[in-house]
């Protein structure tokens, strides 16, 4: 009869570090979740203070540049927003190429989910924003928007013609404009339908030979949080909608690291190729929504060419800028 196998004794592995002594207990507790929470709060405070200081430094310089001719005020505004993203800890990736045409301005049409869209887009594209009139009365933000040469609208029928003329004048002077035709911000999970009334500006002739501005659809998605792909549960952290106030939203967002936004620039559209504003709004929305859906799924994205019937086809691969 074979001998019974010997029972194996449990082998005790050496500890990688010595147990904490009585004097180390306080530090171990401090190094736990409470410390992480404290570090996140300190990170938000640091970012907020640095952004305020940067804004106070940039405001008088931009006010001086507004009095001078040339493109220095446009270049500095773009530099200001790019620095704002950097100070917020937000990296911006651009897929595609900005539309350029000799003596023809561009209206960038984008989805809108957060106030963060302003520094993200403003730091990468040369254009002025269109904002509701209430923004001009907001503390600090109103001053920054005014120095950024923002065009204000009241969204009332009695002032529509005057505001359209103001935007047309700005385009005739060679400026590009940002347009958010959803009319409000979303939760970032989808692109709301575009309102065709917002496209009245692109029907105006703004060039010497009587042509309207070009329209370039733009998809913006926040696709990284803590250096990991965002999903349905984490993407709303970037969204600013409903009755949220900007200070509390900034406080929550600024505590995080590894943030990234992706801008997808689609093929420019010529408004003259579309029979109506509704057709142009539908074609633009098709490209923006399809591009945003691809980015939300963390799949490789390409610029989209929208046809006059609202169909969308992927364009050849475009350059990617980090």
Anisotropy-based shape = globular
CATH topology: Glycerol-3-phosphate (1)-acyltransferase
**CATH class category:** Alpha Beta
Number of strands: 11
- How large is the radius of gyration? 25 Å
Count up the helices: 8
Order of helices and strands: HHHEEHEHEHEEEHEHEEE
In whole angstroms, the N-to-C terminal distance is 73 Å
Q: Hey, roughly how much beta strand do the residues contain?
A: 15-25%
Major sheet attributes:
9 strands, mixed
CATH architecture tag:
3-Layer(aba) Sandwich
Secondary structural class: alpha/beta
Helix content: 25-40%
* Poorly predicted segments: 15-30
Mean pLDDT: 85
Q: How many discrete structural domains?
A: 1
Give a short overview.
This protein is 34% helix and 16% strand. It is of the alpha/beta class and 322 residues long.
Description of the structure:
The chain has 322 residues and is of the alpha/beta class. The chain has a single domain, classed as Glycerol-3-phosphate (1)-acyltransferase. The chain has helices at 25-30, 33-66, 72-88, 117-122, 141-147, 160-172, 246-253, 277-296, and strands spanning 90-95, 106-110, 128-132, 151-153, 177-179, 214-225, 228-229, 259-265, 304-306, 312-314, 320-321. The radius of gyration is 25 Å and the shape is globular.
